[in-house]
Fold this sequence. Notes:
By secondary structure, chain A is α+β, with helices and mostly antiparallel strands.
Amino acid sequence: MSLREEVRDWLAEHVRPLPSVDTAEGFAAHREWERELAAARLAVITWPAAYGGRDATLGEWLVFEEEYWSASAPVRVSQNGLFLLAPVLFSHGSQEQRDRYLSAMATAGEVWAQAWSEPDAGSDLASLRSRAARTEGGWLLSGTKTWSTRAAFADRAFGLFRTDPSAERHRGLTYFLFDLRAPGVTVRPIRQLGGGTGFAELFLDEVFVPDSDVVGEPGDGWRIAMSTAGHERGLSLRSPGRFLAAADRLVSLFREQGSPAELRDRVVDAWLGARAYQLHTAEIVASGDPPGPETSMGKVFWSELDVALHETALDLLGPAGEVAGRWTDDYLFSLAGPIYAGTNEIQRTVVARRVLGLPA
Amino acid sequence: MRSTEHQEFTAALHKMLGATDDPWPKLADMGVTDLDSPLDLVVACEELGHHAVPGPVAESLGAAPALLGAFEGVATLAMPPHLPYAADASSADLVLLVADGVVYRGELGARTESVDPSRSLWEVRPAGILRGEVPAAAFEMGALCCAAYLLGAGQALLEMSVRHASVREQFGRPVGANQAVQHRLADVAIGLEFARPLLDAAALGPLEPRDVSAAKVACADAAYRAARSALQVHGAIGYTTEHEMSRFLLKVRALAGAWGTQSWHRERIMESL
């Protein structure tokens, strides 16, 4: 049986609607879903077998994702860990860190939140001020992190802290892993546009972190974090399967609504965009090149495609477009795309200067 | 995915086209008129668009061989309703009219001007049947070659814009240092970047009408966006025939509606979904 058939059959048998991941009950249900995926060895197919994977290729992962989204399977509660932290642990982490964290991440025994932004450091992340002070056997973290996805219910977090207060901007930053339930951590869930608490603010007051939870060398955090930023903007966070599935649903909705001629071009363009993103991604995977500044082009493309696709769906629904449901949920989710992982304005500047070579 | 051979072929074409004012005889010398794999043709037509080579490119390289097999010289054709006129027919060796489900030899009628002054449009009358059927591949190959040409022209317009914005100074700095200009050109680059996979995918497999339409819609939109942005970035000099940019701009405008309008291709995609 091919991987595609195996995934499709397994999902057909197991996918069920779950309560919102932004409630305690829903979070627990999504954890249980991840545990089932892991038991079928479908949670992290590109990882080595030792951590629950199948050593699958990125091309196979794209197939998995197409089936996953096509089946309307649940949101991956472990997404931050799987797609942002795990690549860092594989490339920069210690063997001890990989052994301690990866298997638990794959089964959602531990769910990770990201801790990048601060109240005064968003797109300009290098201006961050949260600090880590040396102490016996480790570090004491203090400061405020915000827009921390999944932090309302997650177990642990990863992020950057300033270990050298005399160093400017990118220098003197260190990549830390920390326990969200450690003494000194306060989590304040933040209500998002859609009403759920998809992210939270984190207040840290001398939170102890042992040396063994520093990733890479102290002071090398910026370089390490940028290697995950590439992942977040590029392939990992937004697989083509998501847009292909949404475009197919949009075409069905267009027909159900009587194929209104005035909206035809927008529906076709959404379908074309999803197809272009799929083909473009397949080319990148086949080339084997590491992510470069070109990932900024992809980030702008998929995030604007996502908004346009869902706006078209709401317009197709007409006066019923305001009725809360799947399309409005997905629309609200799409609105965040042009902001997170580096706003699209930052991305366009990266494209202009680093891809096109325009002057600064 | 394009091979190293394709990249070398593009480089060789680029060099030849940059060094001549009369490219058509040299295209035959380089074997461009004998290409029959859609991907090879797409690679060639994209580079011809990159240089805005005048003449009936999609007609002669893409459609005519699919209609008649190999022939000598340059061919053009009318194919109503998509191509009501035969482009550049007075200088072509072979003029065809595709209508009534057959291929006629075409006889030249009145000349009409195009918005693109490097292009002439001719009415054509039937003058004897050359083939009693019309292979569907002819239209698809023409549309695919036209899409490739547009993508190449769009890429050239972006390159010109970047060059101009990097050297033209106002307020004591290059105009391309302004974010309003940078972001506009970034959007042009993104449009071209995500049109190319659709073009290559259409050329790689058996020619599927839906894939050809996808390529034409994406390439024409991306090229037109590149053209409008190029004019804006160049400012007044771009609105003159003294700058080569205007030649590309008008070529893109003329070809955007050739080989099936954007609306017709979008409808064809929707019908196939």
